[in-house]
Design brief:
By secondary structure, this protein is α/β, with parallel strands linked by helices. It has 25 helices and 27 strands. Strands 14, 18, 19, 20, 21, 23, 24, 25, 26 and 27 form a ten-stranded mixed beta sheet that branches. Strands 10, 11, 12, 13, 15, 16, 17 and 22 form an eight-stranded mixed beta sheet that branches. Strands 2-4-3-7-8-9 form a six-stranded mixed beta sheet, with helices on both faces. It is globular, with a radius of gyration of 28 Å.
């Protein structure tokens, strides 16, 4: 009976929002890590600020919205059964503490280090006469024409301040009527201008003036007749969730366009204001935006650390950045005159950015370059504003059959996707928006070609990442190019589902959400549990961005209790609690945060022996991916592709002891112990020679026989795939949890220890 109580659902999961904040802490640790180049540390800090913006305008805003709507029901399957108010109370303290860590990193670590490299952000009152003259000339030419000073009085209501726009608030008093009360003035800092103005200086010196300081220095000219009593830069963050009534919408595209305008008008969730600002200004802003006191964040300068990313691009000091890296191009074998001939022989697996993304773009663009290509179908979730692939669709549309499924509700990319949808429709491309109520998140391209022998064949690209040549340079993703009839036929069935909502009895060898993916993933996990009980080999290695789905986590717990060894590589949020005796003591969770953003989703199951089964795809193990989106996970059948994913890729990530953090039973992360040899998975993959198909086979056969470079890869695989020893910290935490009088008291004690 006691064991049954130990497994009560409300204690099985970590809070997803707190788990996300811990992920952002891991990114911040990269900014604090002095082994990273200085400007890369600055970039990591900017990323944490951008991440936090989205967290506030989506997650925190969502909690506030549910509280306002009177949502009080507890969900025992997630977040330890917290109410919305309990969740908010915890997020308040943690978010304020995180912002304090961010600015401590900036003011105590990065900014002083920049100054040692002669990179300085100069306040207005410290500029030389020559620098002021330069700045004032810039102001007259570039800034002043864009400014609209506003006063707040009975005839001028408070302006509609844009989401995340930096503004100057001024406390004003009329000179000719000193008896009147002071009023507020607002000036919006133009978004179209750089936030930092580069000042003239000697070679190797980089001096910058914040744009808002230049504007503040000229406010007297904007408000003649007023005495300026105080100035305060501020920034607001609004609720940016889109609220769509899709069932009532005749046009999803028009609805999204309308809601994008509404996003700018969302309720204010956060006010950032420079620390030390006049209290009267702060109170007037807080009252106007109807904010609680906890929603005011008093920060050091500069407000909005995400904009310091501009400095990274403006400073030409290669020694302060990671060395330039260019992914390896795919080279056709001598016996293949084009990529289609090679695909008829074997699949091609690419691992971006270690393999160059040009191969994928070239594959899609054959619609223009190859007369034998008859048609193309492709999904689009996020793409670059200058995507060459989709320009090629527009050019080829008059002569070829082209179908594109565009997801209009890809958060923060709606504007770009609407423009592409309009552009492609005008060019004659058939544009669809997927299944109403479900985002189309799968990454698929299908080419139909009449080959040289007269036969019509299908060729497909299936990926884990978006069709975006920019993000492909710093997101790690997997691409599979194949002519396998089973896979390409299943891909066509998926497109039929997206355009006509026609459901096949089976999509084998694909798993398709929301139709069968959730159930099949749980079956794959349960099969490992049955194999373990039967004494057969049982093992799971899964790499993903987030793990939040309650039923999938419960299946992993069951497998752990059955003796299945489970290694999870989860970059971001993870609600699963590893290392709990009798529940999850056979599960280990690690997170890799490094130079590249880990984005690939790869899943391997031992399946009772032999090589096992390998899958990759677009879906994380989250409720929205498994139940509310159109997703595809594909089986990796090609032997060489299979072994690359298992032995080189997953093996490397499990061996990493440089960028890996290990999730502890109390929810905290500790760095992996740096035992020798020190090993970084991303560095290894950057250096390792990677080829496709026959060339890879030949190289691997040679290195296996000579024991040179191939033995290095084999060593990674063998050592990484052994059952890892749990860190001492995990053993201690498990012992403490076992000895606690109750599970709840143990969790409370562990969290108190982690805070001290």
């Amino acid at each position: 009976m006691a064991k049954q109580k130990h497994h009560r659902a409300k204690h099985l999961f970590f809070n997803r929002d707190e788990s996300w904040l811990r992920f952002n802490v891991r990114v911040l640790e990269e900014a604090q890590d002095e082994s990273n180049p200085l400007l890369e540390r600055l970039k990591f800090l900017a990323i944490t600020a951008s991440n936090l913006d989205e967290f506030v305008e989506i997650r925190v805003a969502g909690v506030l919205q549910r509280i306002e709507d009177g949502f009080v029901e507890k969900n025992e399957d997630v977040d330890d059964g917290l109410t919305e108010q309990e969740r908010l109370d915890r997020l308040i303290d943690q978010t304020h503490a995180f912002v304090h860590q961010q600015y401590s990193c900036w003011t105590r670590q990065i900014q002083p280090a920049l100054e040692q490299e002669k990179i300085c952000i100069r306040p207005w009152d410290e500029l030389s006469n020559a620098e002021r003259e330069f700045a004032l000339d810039f102001y007259e030419r570039e800034v002043d024409p864009l400014l609209t000073p506003i006063t707040i009085d009975p005839s001028h209501p408070f302006p509609r301040v844009l989401n995340k726009a930096l503004c100057m608030a001024l406390l004003l008093k009329r000179k000719r009527d000193a008896a009147k009360k002071s009023i507020l003035g607002i000036v919006t800092v133009p978004r179209s201008l750089p936030r930092f103005i580069k000042l003239p200086g000697s070679d190797g010196e980089f001096y910058f003036l914040p744009l808002h300081e230049l504007i503040a220095a000229r406010t007297e000219l904007m408000y003649p007749g007023y005495q300026i009593l105080a100035k305060a830069p501020f920034r607001i963050t609004r609720n940016s969730n889109l609220y769509l009534q899709e069932e009532e919408s005749q046009s999803l595209l028009e609805t999204v366009r309308e809601e994008l305008h509404n996003r700018r008008k969302g309720a204010v969730v956060r006010l950032e204001v420079e620390a030390g600002s006049d209290e009267q200004i702060i109170e007037q802003l807080r009252t106007n935006f109807e904010l609680e006191r906890w929603q005011v964040f008093r920060t050091a300068a500069p407000i909005n650390l995400s904009r310091i990313f501009e400095l990274y691009n403006a400073i030409n000091k290669p020694t302060l950045k990671f060395p330039h890296y260019e992914g390896r191009p795919h080279i056709l074998p001598p016996n293949a005159k084009d990529i289609f001939a090679e695909l008829r022989e074997h699949d091609i697996l690419l691992h971006h950015p270690f393999d160059h993304y040009d191969t994928v773009e070239s594959f899609v663009q054959t619609i223009n370059t190859d007369d034998r290509v008859i048609s193309v179908k492709q999904t689009l979730y996020r793409t670059a504003s200058d995507s060459p692939a989709f320009e090629s669709f527009a050019e080829a549309a008059p002569n070829k059959d082209i179908t594109v499924v565009i997801e209009l509700m890809a958060r923060f990319d709606e504007d770009s996707n609407i423009r592409w949808a309009r552009h492609l429709e005008e060019a004659g491309v058939q544009v669809f928006h997927g299944i109403v109520g479900r985002k189309t998140h799968c990454k698929l391209a299908l080419i139909v070609r009449r080959d040289e022998d007269g036969a019509i064949r299908r060729y497909a690209h299936l990926g884990t990442g978006n069709y975006n040549h920019i993000t492909a340079c710093f997101y790690t993703d997997v691409s599979l190019l194949t002519a396998n009839p089973e896979i390409t036929g299943a891909v066509q069935h998926v497109f039929n589902y997206l355009t006509a909502e026609s459901e096949e009895e089976t999509f084998d060898p694909l798993l398709v959400a929301p139709i069968n993916m959730a159930a099949q993933i749980i079956e794959l996990i349960d099969r490992e549990a049955r194999n373990s009980i039967a004494g057969k080999p049982a093992r799971i290695i899964a790499k993903m961005n987030a793990l939040l789905d309650a039923e999938t986590i419960k299946a992993l717990y069951r497998a752990s209790q059955a003796g299945v060894q489970i290694d999870l590589i989860v970059r971001g949020m993870c609600a699963l609690r590893p290392g709990i005796a009798g529940l999850s003591d056979n599960i280990r969770v690690r997170s890799i945060v490094g130079r590249f953003l880990e984005h690939s989703r790869i899943f391997w199951f031992a399946n009772g022996g032999g090589a096992g089964e390998m899958y990759a795809g677009s879906a994380d193990w989250m409720p929205r991916n498994l139940h509310s989106r159109c997703e595809v996970v594909f089986s990796v059948i090609d032997k060489e592709a299979f072994h690359y994913l298992k032995d080189e890729l997953l093996g490397a990530y499990l061996r990493d002891n440089v960028k890996a953090r290990l999730l502890q039973p109390d929810g905290e992360y500790t760095r992996a112990e740096r035992t020798k040899p020190v090993f970084s998975a991303q560095q290894f993959l950057m250096q390792e020679k990677s080829t496709s198909g026959p060339e890879r086979t030949k190289n691997q056969a040679t290195t296996r026989s000579t024991g040179r470079k191939g033995s290095r890869t084999a060593k990674v695989s063998n050592s990484a795939l052994k059952r890892p020893t749990r860190p001492k910290a995990a053993h201690r935490a498990s012992a403490e949890i076992r000895s606690a009088s109750s599970k709840r008291s143990a969790i409370t004690a562990a969290k108190k220890r982690s805070h001290t």
